[in-house]
Amino acid sequence: SQTIHQWPATLVQPVGSPLSLECTVEGTSNPNLYWYRQAAGRGLQLLFYSVGIGQISSEVPQNLSASRPQDRQFILSSKKLLLSDSGFYLCAWKGGLAGVGRTGELFFGEGSRLTVL
Amino acid sequence: RKEVEQDPGPFNVPEGATVAFNCTYSNSASQSFFWYRQDCRKEPKLLMSVYSSGNEDGRFTAQLNRASQYISLLIRDSKLSDSATYLCVVNRGSARQLTFGSGTQLTVLP
Q1: Distance between CA B45 and CA B33 in Å, rounded?
Q2: For chain B, the helix, strand and coil percentages under 3-state DSSP, each to the nearest 5
């Protein structure tokens, strides 16, 4: 079965420090992968998506970057965090292929809650 | 105007009540629609897709009105376990074009 994991689950970082969030997917190959951010009281905002190794599309200009060094690994990074980077970060992969999930269904990781102080 | 708008609530209802949520979307080119459920401090999970003819899954009924550009979710016989935030999601054609509403918070009271 397909699973998705992301870590760390919680982190508190000072302004100006670097960030690395990691996401891995198991049980599927060549998944479409996504990074979302959910700020308090707001909807999910798509940050990056990737259709394959080394292929990253950025949806909004920001202080963050993403990389996909392996087929089932997706990393979200920042060199210098801002206060506005605080939020709940969610990695997801898209189902609907090979009978997994329903068309358009996104499967989310457990999320990483970032607080920038 | 937001692309997807929901009443944030909170909706506080007693067990056994029927509750309905509405969601409006602004882009008439939207093609598919979903309701996700998100428990407190957890990741969202798909509750149900919304089909043009309306669809039912147990106590949950979803409806789509393309002319008025809104979708709805009806929950009958509410359970304590239904307490969560319900996210309306609209798709313009690909997963990168999924737009999430900010969610409607439901609390079912004993």
Answers
A1: 14
A2: 5, 55, 40
User: Residue with structure tokens 């920001």?
Assistant: A62
Over residues B29-86, the pLDDT tens digits come to 888 899 999 999 899 999 999 988 889 999 999 999 999 999 999 999 999 999 999 9
Using the Cα atoms of residue A33, residue B45, residue B1 and residue A63 in order, give the sign of their dihedral.
Answer: negative
A97–B contact, CB cutoff 8 A: no
Q: Note whether A53 contacts B: Cβ–Cβ < 8 A.
A: no
Residue located via tokens 């992968």: A33
Using CA atoms, how far apart are residues A78 and B41, in angstroms rounded to an integer? 23
- Residues of B whose CB is below 8 A from A46: 96, 98
A16 to chain B, minimum CA–CA distance in Å?
26
